[in-house]
Amino acid sequence: MPDDPRPADPAADDPYRFTDHLGPATIVHVTERRSGLRGVVVIDNVAAGPAIGGLRFDPGVTTEVCFRLARAMTLKNAMAGLRHGGAKSGIVGDPRMDPADKERMVRAFAGAITELTGYIPGPDMGTNESTMAVILDEIGRAVGLPTELGGLPLDELGATGFGLAASIDVAARHLDLDLDGARVVVQGYGNVGRPVARFLAERGCRLVATADSRGAVADPQGLDLDALDRLKADGRSVADHPAQRIDGDDLVGVDCEIWIPAAGPDVLRADNVERLRARIVAQGANIPATDEAEATLHQREILVLPDFVANAGGVICGAVEYAKGSRSQAFALIDERVRANTEAVLGAAQGDGVPPRQAALAIAEARVERAMAGRRWT
Ligand code: NAD
After folding, report:
1. Is residue 306 in contact with ligand 1, taking CB distance under 6 Å?
2. Which of 135, 180, 254, 351 is the most buried (most CB within 10 A)?
3. β-pair partners for 39
């Protein structure tokens, strides 16, 4: 609707409906008639420093979704000990639109956020390093840039999968689980799922089932990761791997030690979580389990590594890029921070007899509050 000047979320009539003790600091709706831009920026909290958070290009962007994701970034960045607060932004639109029209919208969006210096955009669903190059061109700040512009290509490097494997390593020690020979299931063989399978294979694990949006396969002896990678490089599905095809819904019941959601939200729910047979659920995806499902997992003594602790590798890589650091510095920091945080969360959860998410929330919120203590405006 290029002529519609309304904000992305017309229901936003109560400006305080999201507000609590942590934020948000700023909500801005942006519209531009010539490009048809409608978008929103939620800067949740900047106590620790300018907020890093992705720009999502999606038809379903709303203020509320951006707020929830911005809060998740505040907690993730605080947990990771970064000198950055949390934010998220969105442009309402189909990411597959004509690239020239999309670039016009992104340029208009960037122009509109020039003065919002407390926000550093990064890539998210529907945007990538080329989008970030366009934003850098307009306003001189963005992370997740192309290598030629000083970027650290976090998806190519598998930064999030690397951190997730480190978190799983700590959890396995915690449970006295030997990773050598441990069976792994990955739901979503993409930028997070593919590298985590690799990093775990280096520790002796075998991938016994995986899925992408087009199908799922299983082999109790282990799937061939090289063959899976070749299929994905050819634009094909993991379901074309010569192993037993299974229904995507049945992935949840495959016997394993480590089950990794690495696709969309709410994959584990009250109606399927009882079928899960694993010792660890490592959340590569953001919000992959409902609250109810996480409560059930806790009752069943299945250890959950919460998303904002275990999948922080990508944003740590973005922060190192912003500070003009190198790949090796990024990987060293991911390893150090994700391991230390997993230890702290599992220790606190065990000590207090609470689910890891509850323990992690307490740690992250306390860090945000400490950062806020000396600041008048946050
Ligand atoms: P991606 O698009 O590279 O990969 C997602 C994979 O999931 C694809 O293989 C896709 O085919 C598959 N998929 C989609 N729907 C599915 C379904 N219903 N069943 C099975 N597979 C399905 O995305 P990504 O960057 O790997 O992100 C995955 C998740 O991890 C998202 O929740 C994202 O927010 C989160 N995450 C990503 C990063 C990162 O660094 N990329 C960092 C933190 C969190």
Report:
1. no
2. 135
3. 30, 91
